[in-house]
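Worked example 2:
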Amino acid sequence: MTTLFKNIKELIQVRTEPIPFVSGKKMRELPTIKNAFLVIDNGLISDFGSMEDCPKTVFPEIIDATGKMILPSWCDSHTHIVYAGNREGEFVDRIKGLSYEAIAANGGGILNSAKKLQETSEEALYQQSKVRLDEVIQLGTGAIEIKSGYGLTLESELKMLRVIKRLKENSPIAIKATFLGAHAVPLEYKKNKDAYLKLLIDEVLPKIAEENLAEYIDVFCETGYFSVADTALILEAGKKYGLIPKIHVNQFTAIGGVQVGVKYHALSVDHLEEMRDEDIEILKNTNTMPVSLPSCSYFLSIPYTPARKMIDSGLPLALATDYNPGSTPSGNMNFVVSTACIKMKMTPEEAINAATINGAYAMGLNAKVGSITKGKLANLILTKPINSYGFIPYAFGTNQIEKVYLKGQEVS
């Protein structure tokens, strides 16, 4: 099936030469073509350009995009959407004055979600998660990474990863799976964290490898959770099974997680609300993508990633949702892009780059999605009639998406 989009007001994120990601001043450059056409063939982008060069061929399907814009779908490289139930009670507790850390210390937080997930069947977990996945697709997400980490037992971690695998098999969206067994220490191991780490390394990892359930491995490297030494131990173990590191670091405290991430060639280091000069310095000239999660900062009322300082220092930056039941119960990448502009002082160009091409790199999908490039998947957002792409972050409370396409097919 071949489809022609014609009279596109502006075709956004056009990359004729493939690049893995953009950094520093380059993040302010967002290549576009005004009054453009785009051709999709068998789910892939096959041609694009100015309307004056539009092919005269007869196409089976022609879509007139007058007044509308097209951009690559959002690439959300950090989510936890496979979870059971919700934690709205903790939301009220925070309003009443309890901190995220205090709630966790009282048995809430990740351990609360783990208990619910352990009691939920695999089928029920799949059905709940599919609703969330379908929702974020409608909001323009065309590639997504999903983590385990709410199981915290052999059986439940595998249950989560099997659900992710099933979502991948039954959905047109590009999905990457990450093993995050080191998300929190279960209550039964509270006084013997080493035994829990041993369980993850000796029992869970071999099963994941046997069933081919994950491509990445993650650790919550944070005070009160897993130390730098713990993180190195887990990453070293994952390396033996070919799992690529992606780490939670610097959310509440900076304890050297960025450094261990760079040492182990992590594909990304995520959160980064607390960044020291030495953390920024160590990331320079590496292949590790810093990832910011601004809706987490919004929801928890914690600092935002210092995007301006990082980008002005020459670093790249990606944006993701952190969709999860405790600190970010939303997978709306449009809100993430808006919040990055409003609260982190990123330009619309920087935010769109961060949410497309850099987000794709942060989950190893930059060769397939993230830009308007010949041969990439036709995972696209068709906007409503808008004045400029800056209107997307500007009108933060309104959905500017008219249609979403995955592999060239409209998502109903």
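The chain has a mean pLDDT of 95. The first helix runs from residue 88 to 95.
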